[in-house]
Each structure stands twice: as C-alpha cells, then as structure tokens.
Amino acid sequence: METKEKTLYSAIPMRTWRWLGVNEAYVPDDIPAADGGEPAGTVLRKTVAAGESRTETLVYRSEQSARVVYEVEAGGTLHLTKVQLLPPDKGHVDALEIHVAEGGEAYVTIAELGASHTVTKVRIDLDGDHAVGDLAAIYLGSGSQRVDLNYVLCQKGRQTRADMQVRGALMGKSEKIFRGTLDFRKGSKGSVGREREEVVLLNEGVRNRSVPLMLSGEDDVDGHHAVSVGKMDQEKLFYVMSRGLDLNEARRLVVEASFQPVLERIADGDLRAEVEQQIEELIADGK
C-alpha cells in the first residue's frame, strides 16, 4: 500500500534534539492539498494604514486551512482575535503573519479549542523602532486531540517590546507541542521581550512538550522566558469538591481561572461567551 508523503508545514527556528520530536510539524492527512502539496485554503492580505486603529476577528468553524498576512504601517494599531472551533473529526492548519512598522502595535488574542489535529503558526515581525507585539493564547486539549503551536516574535527595530503569554490545559489522551520563540535580531538595541507558558495537566494520560526558545544577535536587550507545567493541586481540588462540586465542575473552575486573563481580551461579548461555553462543554464531557 502506497504511503502518503507528509508535507512540512512548520518548523522550530533553531533545531533541537531529534528524539524530542519537536523540530517539525506536518500537515494533517485530511487537509486538502493545492498544487505543489501546500494546503488548499483561504489566503488573505490586509493592511492597517499609518495611524489607523483596527479591530479584526477571525473565526474558523469549518475551514480546514487558511493563511492571513497583515501589514501594520507606521503608528498603526491592530487588535486581532482568532478563534478556532472546528468539529472534532476535522484537522486544521493556519498561518498568521504580521509585520509591524515604526511605532506600530499588534495585539493578538488566540483560542485553539477545536479540531482533531491542529497545526498553527504565528509570526510577528517588529520591523520598525518602538514597535509592539503582544500575543496571548489559550488552548484546551481533550480526548485524543493533537495541538501543535509555533509562535515567533521577531524583534528587529530598536526599543521594541514583545510579550507572549500562553495558557493551556490538557485532559484525556491529548497531546500538545508548543514552540515559543523570542528572536532579538542585530539592530534591536534596547528591546524587551517576555515569554511564558502555563500548562495544567488534568489527568495522567496526556502528553505535553514545551519548547521555550530565546535567540539573540544583539547584546543590549532584555529577554525572559519561562514555562510552568503542573497537575491540579489536590488540596485545592478537595476543598472545591467539599463545597458540593463534582470533579468536572472543579476542573472547569481551575481552567477558567487560568484562562481568564486571555479570555477578557476578547472584545466581542457574544464570541467570548461562545468560547467560554465551548470550554465548559469540553470539560463537562470529561474525556
């Protein structure tokens, strides 16, 4: 039987040990391919004009592949929310690329909750001096889901500011790989970068792989990165359940408390309520 050749979709900016299995990510088997093997899907290119402030929302409910590119011109501000809610029997890949010119700002909020196998990549290039890139994301793995995230904040201009916060929870037999990179390029003097991931493991059957990475080609920069991975605190869990809540309700409270700093960034109240409802249903399912 002929084996389908896998298509490379995403890679870590600097390779690590092969046995970790985190260097590359491939397109899920059920994603339709265009000519050349690349995923077939929507390609959008948008511009935030100089001095303009724009709020945008991307919601994926059925689309299995997409690529979106934003150009934020000098002094422009982009507030972008991306939510992925595909059904659990479909794979999903998407790429988000943002270029920020001098004095521009990009604030990105992401919720990855659906699909059987998610492969997603985000790259924010702070090309100009004093540019700002702020990325906040949540993910929830359940059942046999596979979640693959590759986020890169690339600081090229002087005195740029980058912040990346990622919060996740894993349950069932789900698997997750997170690659988070702060890349200080030569010429980024005076720039500051922060990266942190917090993961809650809700049961024993999950697999978590976190790869925080910081690269620097400049000496006058301030960068920090950290990962926190932990199981549910049994004492807190006992306390909550002693107040009459069952296990799934206790899990929901723990996850919602962790996710709240990101959820509150979703400006659309109806969309935020839908995301919160999806989280509640996934946890209530208990898989």
Question: What do you see in this structure?
Answer:
The protein is mostly beta strands. The protein has one domain. It has helices at 234-242, 247-263, 269-285; strands spanning 8-11, 24-26, 42-48, 53-60, 65-72, 77-84, 91-100, 105-112, 117-126, 132-141, 146-155, 161-170, 175-184, 191-201, 207-216, 221-231. Strands 3-5-7-9-11-13-15 form a 7-stranded parallel sheet, with no helix packed on it. A 7-stranded parallel sheet has the order 4-6-8-10-12-14-16, covered by helices on one side. It has a two-stranded antiparallel ribbon with strand order 1-2. α2 (247-263) packs antiparallel against α3 (269-285). The longest helix is centred in the C-terminal third of the chain and has 17 residues, at 247-263. The radius of gyration is 19 Å and the shape is globular. The model has no long low-confidence stretch (mean pLDDT 91).
